[in-house]
Prior knowledge:
The chain is α/β, with parallel strands linked by helices. The chain is 46% helix and 12% strand. It is globular and about 55 Å long.
Amino acid sequence: xxxxxxxxxxxxxxxxxxxxxxxxxxxxxxxxxxxxxxxxxxxxxxxxxxxxxxxxxxxxxxxxxxxxxxxxxxxxxxxxxxxxxxxxxxxxxxxxxxxxxxxxxxxxxxxxxxxxxxxxxxxxxxxxxxxxxxxxxxxxxxxxxxxxxxxxxxxxxxxxxxxxxxxxxxxxxxxxxxxxxxxxxxxxxxxxxxxxxxxxxxxxx
Length: 205
C-alpha cells in the first residue's frame, strides 16, 4: 500500500506517555532552553549557508563548462555519477544549473539538516496519509512483532527511482517471508512548477 507524509513526529506518540509527562513535554516544546535553541540554530544555519555558497560557486563553474562544446562531456559524466544511472541528456539538459535547480537542492539540503532520524537512534514515528486522503496511521503501525520493516521513500518524478524500482520489487519478493516492506511517497523530486525533468508524472495504475 502506498502512503505519504503528513508531518513528522518529534516525540513518541502521546498515548504512550502519562498526562503529567505530556504536559511537561509540551511546555518544553513551547519554550526550549536558549542554549538548546542556539545549538540547533548553529547546527543548521551555518552548514546551510556554507553549502549554499559552495553550490553557487559550483553552479557558476559548471554552467561555464556546459556552454563549451569540448567540455560538455564533463557535465554529462558528472550527472551520470550523481544519478548512478545513465540518463538521456534531453531529460535534464534544459534545466541544469538553473534557479529552480538551485532552489530544489537548497531545500533538499535544509530538509537533510533538519531530519529527526539519526543512525543508532530510535526511529521517528510520523503520521502517514493514504494517497486518497481517507486513511491516516502511524509508521510503527506497519511493524509486526520482531520482523524488520523496510521503508522505501519514493517519488515517481525521480528517474533514478523509476530505473531501480524493479530491483526493489525483486528484494521484496525474495525477503517478504522474513521482513515487511512499505513504500512512502514523499515530495516530488521534479515537480512541474519547480526543477522539472522531461519525464511523465503520471503514476501507474
